[in-house]
Design brief:
With 88 residues, the chain is mostly helical. The chain has helices at 16-63, 67-80, and strands at 6-9, 12-15.
Length: 88
């Protein structure tokens, strides 16, 4: 019979404290990796949006592109990447 303070795992008893400590440690590692991943993704998206904005701005300045061209670009990006927002 398993007591309140132990868990039976493959014919070996593991203290509840040992189990809990391991579980907490693993959860913390997973959460940390998720946060690091989200930060990396956000960093890349900010870089991407900056580059898109810069390129469009340069075309507007050098070639006089106006709103109609930007709307067509936005539509083309929306068609290619459905569900992604932020293209105009």
């Amino acid at each position: 019979m398993v007591e309140k303070h132990t868990l039976a795992i493959k014919n070996r008893e593991v203290s509840r404290a040992e189990y809990t400590n391991l579980l907490v440690s693993l959860k913390n590692k997973i959460r940390s990796a998720q946060i690091k991943g989200a930060i990396a993704v956000n960093r890349e998206l900010i870089k991407l949006y900056w580059e898109i904005g810069k390129e469009i701005f340069e075309k507007q300045e050098k070639k006089g592109w106006g709103r109609n061209v930007l709307e067509k670009i936005a539509k083309g990006l929306q068609d290619e990447f459905p569900g992604v927002e932020g293209f105009f």
